[in-house]
Amino acid sequence: MAISAGGLVLRAQAPAKPTATLHIYRPRLDVGKAAHPTVSCDAFPIARIQNGRVYTMTISPGKHSFTVGEKTAEIDIEAEAGKEYFLRVDYPPNASFAVGATAVLVDPAEGLKEIKKLRPLDGWFIENATCGKT
Predict the structure, then answer these.
(1) Is 68 part of a structural domain of the chain?
(2) What's the CATH code of the domain at 49?
(3) Residue 129 has pLDDT above 80, yes or no
(4) How far apart are CA 42 and CA 133, in angstroms?
(5) Tens-place pLDDT, residues 105-123
(6) What is the pLDDT of residues 11-28, one digit of tens each?
(7) Kind of pairing, strands 2-5 and 8-11?
(8) 118 within some domain
(9) With 82 labelled, which of 17, 31, 63, 101 sits at a CA distance of 20 to 30 A?
């Protein structure tokens, strides 16, 4: 719908869809520091996570499944509009390069504290800006 106001045409914008915020991050660790494990949402690659970096994105409300690498367990998140979620990419202690990273869903208070120390993920490591079921 367009409304004319003194020569200006104002268009009504559709209300924004409600979303949740997801922070995918990897603390700076010596284990696997050269690796860039791929985080996938609903079987679609999102980003290759650098050591000591964070990637923040919006996701649609509903159930989403996250994996890191190829042979890891899924982390399911039932996303609610307006909430923040923190997914940390971890390596087991004393792991070798051959051992894969895993995803851990972190309490929001802890996750917020941990991501403040990190830099944003470099853009060329982002595969897809949305989850598969958006």
Answers:
(1) yes
(2) 2.60.40
(3) no
(4) 7
(5) 999 999 999 999 999 999 9
(6) 666 566 789 999 999 998
(7) antiparallel
(8) yes
(9) 101
Residue type present at position 31: V
3-class secondary-structure state, position 34: coil
- Contact call for residues 22 and 103 (beta carbons, < 8 A): no
Q: Is residue 132 part of a domain?
A: no
Confidence of residue 131 (pLDDT cuts 50, 70, 90): confident
pTM for the predicted model, two decimal places: 0.81
Token code pair at residue 5? 């106001």
Instruction: Give the β-pairing of 75-79 and 20-26.
Output: unpaired
pLDDT category, 3, cuts 50, 70, 90?
Answer: low
Of the candidates 127, 120, 118, the one whose C-alpha atom is nearest the C-alpha of residue 48 is 127
Q: Does 1 reside within a domain?
A: no
CA distances, 48 to each of 1, 43, 130 (Å): 42, 14, 14
Tally of structural domains, the chain:
1
